[in-house]
């Protein structure tokens, strides 16, 4: 090795030393060098460049800057790149969870995974409790039908919607007070459940049945004109007849009124109208001795 | 190839056969090395005969056919996007193909960044500075095309074989060029 080569090697060594201290500025050799030292310098320059890229990426990663992409084909950062990838996936998973998907599991971040998964578990429990609470607050416990509160909300929603014509039915269980007074509330409750069963078995999937009073039920029938509502009524009458054949000791008798609304009508008004018709029906049925099927109108 | 021949060689899911009946003792699993032996010898013969680029194209096209059929026969295309991805993840894991993760999913532009770890095709391969998962590129493109009804371009930007620990795929819908 001659004196010049020694000087150049010292320059390359200094370059590496600077890089080790975090200074990545590259300086070219002070004098022309032979092929071997040239190729050493090129390799050092490549290494220093990769160190610089790696340092930039790792610094960004340490600040949570996941938007900074890892430098391509840089083998120095392989493990950090994997961490970066895991954190990006975790970000996506968290977004999914925020959007309601509680089926996400983390299994690549050690102890953090355990903590994260138990967080999701408790979110799931909370959601189940909320679902149960929502169900209870919307439903009548005796019949499992919707309750009056939910019915009123739904009536407002349907009024603002586009599913007209909307028919509304009001159904009232005849003689409940008498049964409660003479046979007791347990029998009365069974009668209410029987009426609920009769109505529920006759309506369609989109119809909403609610128990809105002690012996009173209401049904919202979206996209249903008067003629179609009449068909539903016939089905209820058929179902009532069948129920009474099967339960001859405690038959139900239901008075029903229907009214139909067009877009723009007030559904509260239409509900009152259906209620009025229900009373007319009840009166008529009393005149004809309770059967009065042909008097339904 | 004439149309008649094309028809005769059209792949159907049933072509995979009744494995339970055919392999009552050996079952439906095999060594990963066997799968790789088949893929990399096939690749070499294709590359020798048609050149590396054409070999890659053929593998990609085969992968796309596989992805298309896989989506039609195994996945539920009626799920919403997140449900669909979750099902794809579950299936790839259950079938020991790899661990699929989503790094980014832009539901507006349908641009996705997906990673596959412990990939059947490449994890553990010697590092050669090249990505080798063209078959997977095609597979993902096929799956996404059946699900979205749009053609996809899928590129593997990182691969075990290029020195990374996971394979990373960028998928975007192909822009339809208007005439
Ligand atoms: Zn790969």
Quick rundown:
The complex is a heterodimer of chains A (297) and B (179). With 297 residues, chain A is of the alpha+beta class.
Write the layout of secondary structure elements.
The complex is a heterodimer of chains A (297) and B (179).
Chain A: H1 3-20, H2 35-62, H3 78-98, H4 110-138, H5 148-160, E1 166-173, H6 176-183, H7 185-202, E2 208-211, E3 216-221, H8 226-246, E4 254-261, H9 267-287
Antiparallel strand pairs in A: 1-3, 1-4, 2-3
Chain B: H1 3-8, H2 19-22, H3 32-50, H4 52-74, H5 81-94, E1 99-106, E2 111-117, H6 134-148, E3 152-158, E4 167-173
Antiparallel strand pairs in B: 1-2, 2-4, 3-4
The complex binds zinc ion.
List keywords for this structure.
heterodimer, A: 297 residues, alpha+beta, Alpha-Beta Plaits, four-stranded antiparallel beta sheet, 9% strand, rod-shaped, disordered C terminus, B: 179 residues, Muramoyl-pentapeptide Carboxypeptidase, domain 2, binds zinc ion
Number of strands of chain B: 4
Identify the CATH class of the largest domain in chain A: Alpha Beta
Strand arrangement, largest sheet of chain A? 2-3-1-4
SS element count, helices of chain B: 6
Largest beta-sheet details of chain B:
4 strands, antiparallel
End-to-end CA span of chain B: 29 Å
**Low-confidence segments of chain A:** 292-297
Radius of gyration of chain B: 17 Å
Which fold name corresponds to the CATH topology of the largest domain in chain A? Alpha-Beta Plaits
Quaternary organisation of the protein chains:
heterodimer
Fraction in helix of chain B = 40-55%
Describe this structure in words.
The complex is a heterodimer of chains A (297) and B (179). Chain A is α+β, with helices and mostly antiparallel strands. Chain A folds into 3 domains: 3-95, no CATH class; 110-136; 148-288, Alpha-Beta Plaits, CATH 3.30.70.270. Chain A has helices at residues 3-20, 35-62, 78-98, 110-138, 148-160, 176-183, 185-202, 226-246, 267-287; strands at 166-173, 208-211, 216-221, 254-261. A 4-stranded antiparallel beta sheet of chain A has the order 2-3-1-4, with helices on both faces. In chain A, helix 6 runs antiparallel to helix 7 and helix 7 (185-202) packs across helix 8 (226-246). In chain A, 23% of the residues are buried. Chain B has 179 residues and is an alpha+beta fold. Chain B has a domain at 61-173: Trafficking protein particle complex subunit 3 (Muramoyl-pentapeptide Carboxypeptidase, domain 2, 2-Layer Sandwich), CATH 3.30.1380. In chain B, 45% of the residues lie in helices and 16% in strands. Chain B has helices spanning 3-8, 19-22, 32-50, 52-74, 81-94, 134-148, and strands spanning 99-106, 111-117, 152-158, 167-173. In chain B, helix 4 (52-74) packs parallel to helix 6 (134-148). The radius of gyration of chain B is 17 Å and the shape is globular. The model of chain B has no long low-confidence stretch (mean pLDDT 89). Chain A binds chain B through residues 72-73, 75, 78-79, 81-82, 85-86, 88-89, 92-93, 96, 99, 101, 103, and chain B through 82, 86, 101-105, 113, 115, 127, 129, 157-158, 162-166, 168. Residues 119, 122, 131-133, 156, 159-161, 167 of chain B line the site of zinc ion.
């Amino acid at each position: 090795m001659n004196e010049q080569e020694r000087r150049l090697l010292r320059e390359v060594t200094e370059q590496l030393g600077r890089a080790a201290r975090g200074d990545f500025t590259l300086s070219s050799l002070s004098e022309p060098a032979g092929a071997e030292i040239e190729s050493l310098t090129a390799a050092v320059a490549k290494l220093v460049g990769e160190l610089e890229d790696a340092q930039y990426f790792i610094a960004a990663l340490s600040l949570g800057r996941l938007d900074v992409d890892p430098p391509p084909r840089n083998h120095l950062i392989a493990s950090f790149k994997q961490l970066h990838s895991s954190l990006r996936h975790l970000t996506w998973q968290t977004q999914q969870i925020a959007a309601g998907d509680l089926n996400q599991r983390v299994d690549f971040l050690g102890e953090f995974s355990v903590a994260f998964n138990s967080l999701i578990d408790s979110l799931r429990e909370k959601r189940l409790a909320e679902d149960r609470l929502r169900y209870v607050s919307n439903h009548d416990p005796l019949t499992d039908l919707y309750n009056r509160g939910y019915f009123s909300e739904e009536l407002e929603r349907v009024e603002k919607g586009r599913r007209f014509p909307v028919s509304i039915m009001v159904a009232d269980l005849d003689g409940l007070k008498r049964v409660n007074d003479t046979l007791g509330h347990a029998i009365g409750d069974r009668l209410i459940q029987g009426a609920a069963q009769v109505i529920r078995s006759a309506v369609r999937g989109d119809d909403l049945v609610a128990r809105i009073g002690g012996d009173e039920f209401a049904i919202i029938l979206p996209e249903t004109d008067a003629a179609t509502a009449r068909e539903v009524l016939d089905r209820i009458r058929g179902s009532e007849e069948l129920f009474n054949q099967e339960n001859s000791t405690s038959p139900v008798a239901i008075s029903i009124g229907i009214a139909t609304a067009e877009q723009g009508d007030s559904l509260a008004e239409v509900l009152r109208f259906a209620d009025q018709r229900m009373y007319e029906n009840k009166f008529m049925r009393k005149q004809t001795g309770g059967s009065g099927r042909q008097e339904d109108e | 190839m004439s149309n008649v021949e094309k028809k005769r060689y059209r792949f159907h899911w049933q072509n995979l056969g009744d494995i339970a009946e055919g392999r009552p003792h050996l079952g439906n699993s095999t060594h990963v090395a066997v799968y790789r032996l088949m893929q990399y010898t096939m690749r070499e013969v294709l590359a020798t005969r048609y050149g590396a680029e054409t070999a890659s194209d053929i593998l990609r096209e085969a992968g796309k056919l596989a992805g298309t059929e896989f989506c039609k026969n195994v996945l539920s295309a009626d799920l919403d996007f997140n449900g669909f991805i979750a099902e794809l993840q579950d299936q790839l894991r259950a079938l020991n193909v790899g661990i699929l993760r989503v790094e980014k999913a832009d539901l507006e532009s349908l641009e996705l960044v997906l990673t596959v770890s412990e990939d059947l095709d490449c994890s553990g391969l010697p590092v050669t500075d090249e990505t080798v998962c063209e078959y997977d590129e095609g597979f993902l493109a096929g799956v996404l095309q059946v699900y979205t009804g749009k053609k996809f371009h899928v590129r593997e930007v990182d691969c075990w074989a290029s020195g990374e620990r996971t394979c990373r795929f960028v998928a975007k819908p192909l822009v339809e060029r208007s005439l």
